[in-house]
Amino acid sequence: MRNRTEVRRVPLRVWWFRDELRIVRAAAEHAALLGCRVTAIGERDVSTVLRQVRDIKAGNASWQRYMSAYFLTSPDILFGAGVLPNPERLPLTINCGGARRRVEISPLPLRRSSTPVEAWRDIAPGYPHSEAGYKSALLTEKAPPYLQHPERNYRIEYLAEPAIIYLQYNRAQAMSAEPMADFIRRVSRLLDEHPVKGVIIDVRFNTGGDAGVGTPLVETLAARLKV
Fold first, then answer.
1. What gap in Å lies between CA 21 and CA 14, rounded to an integer?
2. pLDDT in tens, 143-169
3. Which of 117, 142, 167 is the last residue of a domain?
């Protein structure tokens, strides 16, 4: 579903913020729904629907929540899970600024693609999506640091205050712009040239790839940090 042909989805993208499901990206004609909280799908509240789509894909609790970002925007999946009686429309109850209303969205035609799709990219306003005309709930200039470079599989920066190295590893795949060997040398230079009180390794968005790509990085850090 994420790496080959997708099922049909509506032109909305959602993300979980604790127990709240929010619309974070939408086609231009649905831009008024950006930031709104989805409280129900069909006749059922979102927590009930989440339980119904659990285990469609094997994985732990965090993986189930991640995959639900796809499932909850696909009338086909929701029809198959027994949530909806009709796969041709997605009825949503939403709350926008305290005002509750109901909308119905039709799915787009099936999109065939071999390009990997990641739900977390929908919350990163600067990611170069192939879908034209979509709007983001978050402005690029207001994106927090961890969402500022979504196009990079791995990156590193030194935070002078409080002397922390922040290493983000979004995908286990080499980049032609910076092969892993070059990246490791840059990591080593930062460790050599700066006082370091701590290292943050951010893998929250890493859904896999080739584990061997990151093995030399892990080995280098383990030796340098004595862990």
1. 6
2. 998 999 999 999 999 999 899 999 999
3. 142
